[in-house]
Please model this.
Amino acid sequence: MIPSYHSAPLYPRCALSLLLGAAMLLSSAIQTVEASSATPSSGIMQGFPPPPELRVTKANAFLPPYLRWSMTHAREISPTRNLARATPPMHLPIGQPLDLDNMVFKVGEEYFTLNHYLQESFTDGLIVVHRGQVVYERYLDGFSERQPHIWASMTKSVTGLLAAQFIAEGKLDPQARLASYVPELEGTPFGESSVRANLDMMVAVAYPENVPPDLGLFAATGLIPRQQGMPEDIYSFLKMAHLDGDNDQEAPFFYQNGSAEALAWALRRISGQSWAALVEERIWSRFAEEDAYVQVDPLGTEMASGGISSNLRDTARFAELVRLELTREIPKDSFTQAVQSLIDPGDPVAFANGNMASGRPGYSYRNYWYQKNDGDNSIEASGRFGQKIYINPKRELVIVQLATTPDQARRASSANAQDRVGASAISSATTFSNLISAVQDRLPH
Model:
């Protein structure tokens, strides 16, 4: 059996500055929270009732030390909708274990062992699947095999697969204006842009300064306290965005939440089904061993850009399912076609000039997936606070990381504004790429 490890996290020395910075950056949307010396291991949400200073609320859920609990108990923070398991689930056997704990790779200007990195990055779970078998699996700080963990923006990659299925079935025209499917989006940047532009984050959109693409959506979904002027639901959030620049200019690559939410609206309208029903029927039923869930707004609208929570092994099953479909020579159905569309050429030049290029040299973006362009058709999904999926079909490799890395940087409201303020080396795309390379060096030939 692959051993499971449970170890206490080491909160970085900058924890106090993170709290203070968060209070300033999020003051328009989140109440100021006093710094606490408590860690998840020392009693967050423990007791009957928990002491006031150890309680997780909507006001502090995204701040350390409360973040770790909220990311693994999202269903207790806000309303959710279920995603039912498969019957039967995908088999995920245990293979010959890889000894990776003391594997060394570069983190910024230093070299860390994997063990050190996992603790310093607040990783909750890491799993490596090679040739369809689990060769490394680790859980930290009480996170366990059956515990759901929020995916954050890796949820977009599921929405992208749904849209690609609709395209393969002729139900969604990638060149059509999105407003042709959702008239309510007429005049918005999303509605006036094509389906393809929305899928590839090539929409010239700007958000009001008090409704940035992260906090605005969090407020709309009820994840944080909703201040005056904030949207009351996801549909209202989309209508608050406005065009950035000239209609005649080519839109830049700008990664944000609105495009995925707008596209999900179209999928609901076309199918007459909820986003959750579509995911459950078309994707989750193919692999999942356990139920998952997705967060919803006051109208019951699923957060299609960031709301899924599932356990580590089912996240790995999802990635392994995608890997297998990438290697299928004859498409089985529209899902195979959707997965294989993820490696249709994206635009590396546009991506290089966008807000996600740091640490991703040579990458491109397609259907809410990152294309590594490494010659192996490798693709990645990524989410805030350290969620990552890496799929390499040529090396038959899947790596999944679920984490609660502190990240209080307020996201830019437009392509021309500053983004990713204060990104640290330990949470960078470069570090994850270095981890991947180190794991590949340990794989048997």
